[in-house]
Amino acid sequence: MATVEFTREELMAVAAAAEIRDSEVAIIGTGLPMIASYLAKRTHAPSASLFFESGIIDAFPRDLATGVGDFRLMSNCVKASGLYYALSLLQGGRVDLGFLGAAEVDQYGNINSTVIGNYIKPQVRLPGSGGANDIASLAKRVVIIVPHQLRKFPERVQYITTPGHLDGVGARERAGLRGAGPVRVVTNLAVMGFDDETKRMKLRSLHPGVSLDQVRENTGFELLVTEPIEETPAPTPEQLKLLREEIDPDGIYISKK
Amino acid sequence: MATIEIGRCGSTGVKRSKTTSKIISAAEAVATIVDGSNLTLGGFAHSLTPIAMVHEMIRQGKKDIDLTSMGECWAADFLAGAGALRRARLSNYMFEGYGRCLNFSRGVQEGRIQVEDYSHFGITSRLQAAALGVSYLPIKVMAGTDILNVKTFDEDKYKTVQCPFTDEEYVAVRSIQPDVAIIHASRADLSGNTQVFGASSIIEEQARAAKRVIVSVEEIVSSAEIMKKPESTILPSFMVDAVVEVPFGAHPGGMFRYYNQDDKHIGRYWEASRTPETFQEYLNEFVYGVQDLWGYLKKIGIRQLMTLRADPKLGY
Fold it and tell me: Shortest CA distance to B96 belongs to which of B256, B235, B261, B226?
């Protein structure tokens, strides 16, 4: 096969898509998770059910949506309910997979999206949990998609908005959280998982052309690594064609080369 | 409920019975809201936004509002920018596609607005408890995080309870009953049977939890029209205390099957919200500077409003 050029965002979408298995129920958000989910549905997971916290279920939009309550999703979906119904599905144990973004994610996969600084009078007030805490508490598996930058990967987040593995092994169970928590972190540099014994973040694969040093320089804690290090599989020509020509033809979330 | 002047937008050809109508003007509806009230207002991202009602609240100088909300960013940011917001229970305020809610964030950062964070399901469960008439609901979210660990203004935000049947531990959230719910919906009849097209956010939970419900709608239709699409009815008339007719009342937000969000104006708002001075100018122009919705729509302009109209086949 000839080598095909691709962008890091395309690779992230493909790596995230790989986490959705066929026939699963996944709750997804805007941006790369939406692109990844629709790619999965068009390739290896045609029977996956995709829904949004807005209450829109199994939407087949004519055009790419730019929000979870976008009218383009409402226009062609199997059910347009409400937020409470959508999130009730999580607590009812119906949801296999959730995708989350993050302002900050720490070595245990805990996410901060609430404040930078003190809670009462913060330096920066961020938007808050939204449905992220619900998804991370209750989806059977969670995949975090985040740009790999030092300030976004602190050892400990300033405020735990959304539970990862809290402070390590057994912490989620002690807190009474039902889902397994984050299983993958997909960035523009690498794919990471979590060590079974410590629940600390662990490198799984480096994207083609990325060095381990590059990942370490952009991570604010000691990332667990086991040799030999694998390489993230490159997107196939079929996947790239779908992304570029059908799923995000205007390059809204995946900038074109 | 007595009816007062209702003829202003009477283009719908609906016969308005004086004895059963719940229709009042936006000004009358807002006049019933007491300063310091605990309110819950509709809106999901840039849709279902009760902007006409929020404008009127600001014009009438409402203050010390205590908001019980999920992600109703527009209502919160407007009230924050007008200095009307004292505190907010929230799960997420974000101008999707633009960024943080700047008026609200500034108010919190400067210590003028108190906040209490929840997850979407957490805060909605508090409303749902009130809707069901129970004093609390056991849920399985927010546990182990700073949403529960960090102390906030409500001492009774949550407790941990054990199931009497299985011993499983739950986070118990206390019911909350807002004084008034202000909901923007698609259409209603004179008696208040209210319909929403498309996804409905948490309108049902908000309305069922609140002591009083004010609904604003894009159009008033006949009861016969309501009954042609009963599956779209989100609130039956006995759940609704007053109805306000405000076409384009969600602008610059959108209403599915009526009109799209006005990105041009959202951008203008968001830019204005960068500083208190520029936001004050915005309020002077679009809120204080007009008498009512009609003055506002005139300022936006018919040409611009027409470009937002939905394609009847697609709904957007």
Answer: B261
| Tally of domains within chain B | 2
Radius of gyration, CA atoms only, chain B: 19
Q: Which of A122, A159, A177 has its CB closest to that of B146?
A: A159
Helix B263-272 × helix B276-283 angle, to 10°: 130
Tell me which residue range forms the domain holding B289.
21-136+176-308
Report ipTM for this prediction: 0.96
- Do B227 and B132 fall within a single domain? yes
Residue type at A86 in one-letter notation: A
Q: Are residues B221 and B295 in the same domain?
A: yes
Q: What is the mean pLDDT of each run of 10 residues along chain A (257 residues)?
A: 80 97 96 95 98 96 91 95 98 97 95 96 97 98 97 97 98 96 98 98 97 98 96 97 96 80
Residues B75 and B143 in one domain: no
Indicate yes or no: pTM above 0.90.
Answer: yes
Please check whether residues B216 and B275 belong to one and the same domain. Answer: yes
User: How far B50 CA sits from the closest chain A CA (Å)?
Assistant: 16
Q: What is the CATH number of the domain that holds B221?
A: 3.40.1080.10
Mark whether A24 is an active-site residue: no
Q: Give the end-to-end CA distance of chain B in Å, rounded to a whole number.
A: 35
Cβ B120–A130 below 8 Å, yes or no? yes
DSSP string spanning A49-105?
EEE-TTSEEEE--SS--SSTT-HHHHTTEEEE--HHHHHHHHHTT---EEEE--SEE
Cα separations in angstroms, A228 against A33, A199, A200, A233: 29, 20, 19, 15
Q: Which of B145, B174, B203 is the last residue of a domain?
A: B174
